Amino acid sequence: MLGQLAAVQPLVIGLLLAWSSYGKLHGPHVAAKARRTALSDLVGDRYAAPAYRAVGGIELAIAIALLLPPLWLVEALAAVALAAGFVGYVIYARVVVPESSCGCMGSAATPVRWRGIARAGVLLAAALAALTADIGWWSVQPMSIALVVVEAMVFVGLSAELDRYWLMPLRRLRVRLTHPLAGTASYEVPLAATQQQLLRSTAYQSVNPFLRSDIRDHWDEGDWRFVSYTAAYGERPATAVFAVPRLRYEPDEVRVAIVDESSGETLYRPATPLALVD
Amino acid sequence: MAGVNGEVSWFCCGNSWGPCGSAGTGACGTCHSGKFQHAWPNTSDACYSITRPDRCGVTAMSRRTCGFRHSTTNLCNGARVVTSIADCGPQTDLFCGERACCGGTCASNRIIDLTPAAFSAIASLNAGLIPCSVNVG
Amino acid sequence: MTGTIGRRTLLTSAVLGTSATLVGATAMGSLAPETAFAARAQLPEPGQPDPNFAEGRVVSRDGSVVMASGSDGRLHRIQLTGGTSVWKLRPTTVDQVLVGDGLYARGVLMPGGLLAAESVWVNIVNLKVHITAIGKNVLYLDHNGQKVVGHVVPGTSAAVYNGTAAISDLSMLKVGKHAQVIGAWRPDTNEVDLATIYAAA
Questions:
Q1: Is residue C74 part of a domain?
Q2: Do C118 and C128 share a domain, yes or no?
Q3: Inter-chain contact B78–A202, Cβ cutoff 8 Å?
Q4: Residues of A contacting chain B (CB within 8 angstroms)
Q5: CB A107 within 8 A of CB A23
Q6: Which of the residues A64, B7, B98, C43 has an alpha carbon 20 to 30 A from that of B105?
Q7: Is A204 in contact with B77 (Cβ distance < 8 A)?
Q8: Cβ-based neighbours of B133, under 8 Å, separated by 6 or more
Q9: B73-125 pLDDT, tens per residue?
């Protein structure tokens, strides 16, 4: 069994490296991608793209060697060296540039997290196991291919950039079945809705130049929601107060007054729209 | 360039606090939340390949580089601000077809992002997203 | 002083027209809005800092004067007054500006370098995100590869779907979709309370 396990490792590693190299060598934005990885700190911005491509080339070479006969120990040694390099690199990236993407498996930019480090560790373990293989993967029992599938699933599970293919659909399904925020619907009108309506009203537009502050206070009374702002009427400090229909969207019915709070005088109030009869 | 109508929002730059703690100084290296600046979706090929306003059918976004001046007018109150390009953005194609209206005037698609200093000069920061008209400043 | 209740009563009756003391309505012609705009402080040159704006972390507070350390290294002295509007997840009072908070302030720069604040937005964030998961009263967000936890605050959090009117119903949010979030950052946990979420339905 252990012999079979060791024998399939070159297949697993080979496929993985081939996929990883594809993302580094192919695509229109390889250079931009390279600069977002920790490589740019390691070798400098100028050399990030060539270094990124070189790693892809090495990966591809090792992948081809591992996948094709004959079985050479040196292939496994090269895979161990590369995997050890990855482990060192993701730990470096985590410590030195924690917000950078690791760039190790191709395209999507995901910052290095514990999953990235675990994935590099699993790859190293697989490469070490491959060292002990004494038969080629092409001569294993058909049953052992199941091991390849399981290992591939482990790699997929540890790859944050692949979440959108399996984890997101699962979460979406869960949310569709029982939406955790289903209870948020209520008859309460959020202040954001009042503010939207206010900003779109002619009342607001007519006094906007007098406003000095953002919303200072708000309160509800009957069908109205009142919103007040600090204002200046000429040189006179004042307060602008708006009455906004609370439960309806009728920006034309918004009313405004500018008030001198110290004297209690209303300094300005436009003619009331016809629709409003108290 | 004729004026382009669209939506304007704001973004932070220059390392400050919270999720803006590592925002950096933008594609031009000069961006700062306290300055009168903006992000423009077509500052370079690399920038355009990310923002892709053409995917929303917006093709009037000319190539403009760092320091170029645009004026942004808030269609809700007429307030206007002139700023210079300091970054690439917003990612227009993520919000294709989104619409904001004021009175009878509506505007679709995100075409510009202002710094907090510039946005707060024409609208409330918590309003977040408003219809605007953008012109060469 | 009659306080908040008295103020609100006065303002309510003024705007609904139930109070009799109307003085200046006809004087409106002499106070054209354009004049009011022109009287405002000059805006700065494009690309330059706005002297009438401040941003940074609150490092100390002495009564109504707040010291904020700007991200460009400048130290701002900000004067809060009874007329200053304060947003911290929702409109609130000036005493809610605390040491450790981050803020944006707009006002008028006084001689001597004190910024008389007219509007202050505390801990406000504007994030373009992916919704990576939804839980009970919480959204898990990805902001440029950075994980952000967003808390639903009943009665305050609202969603705007496709640019329509804001509603409290967040059940149309979908996992894996883009959204824009206006929220209030919590300095102690680095999480965010959700104010408004702009999303496609």
A1: yes
A2: no
A3: no
A4: 28-29, 32, 99, 195, 199-200, 202, 204-205, 208, 214-215
A5: yes
A6: C43
A7: yes
A8: B3, B4, B5, B72, B73, B75, B107
A9: 998 888 899 999 999 888 888 888 888 877 677 888 889 999 999 999 999 99
Q: Which residues of C touch A265 (CB under 8 A)?
A: 21-24
Q: Which member of C55, C146, C185 has the closest CB to residue B33?
A: C55
List Cβ neighbours of A54 (8 Å cut-off, separation of 6 or more): none
Rounded to 10 deg, the angle between the A114-131 and A73-96 helix axes is 160
Domain edges within chain B: 4-16+23-136
Contacts of A270 in chain C (CB under 8 A): 25, 28
Shared-domain flag, residues C128 and C170: yes
Task: Kindly give, in sequence order, each residue whose CB lies less than 8 Å from that of residue C79, ignoring residues fewer than 6 positions away.
Answer: C64, C65, C107, C110, C114, C115, C116, C117
Contacts B77 to A, Cβ<8 Å: 199, 204-205, 208
Task: Give the one of B22, B78, B124 whose C-beta lies nearest to A214's C-beta.
Answer: B124
Domain coverage including residue C154: 124-199
Q: What is the ipTM of this complex?
A: 0.90
B46 near A CB under 8 A: yes
* Cβ contact A29–B46 (<8 Å): yes
Task: Tell me the pTM.
Answer: 0.79
Tens of pLDDT, residues A23-81:
788 766 666 666 666 676 677 777 778 888 888 888 888 888 888 877 777 888 888 88
Q: How far is CA C182 from CA A97, C147, C197, in A?
A: 28, 16, 6
Nearest-CA distance C97 → chain A (Å): 14
CA angle B24, B28, B29 (to 5 degrees): 40
Last residue of one domain, picked from the residues C122, C137, C165: C122
Residue A254 CA to residue A222 CA, distance in Å, equals: 15
Note whether C121 contacts B101, CB cutoff 8 Å.
Answer: no
Q: What is the CATH number of the domain that holds C87?
A: 2.40.50.140
Q: What residues pair up with B84 in beta bridges, in sequence order?
A: B37, B69
Strand partners, B10: B114
- As its CATH architecture, domain B4-16+23-136 has Beta Barrel (2.40)
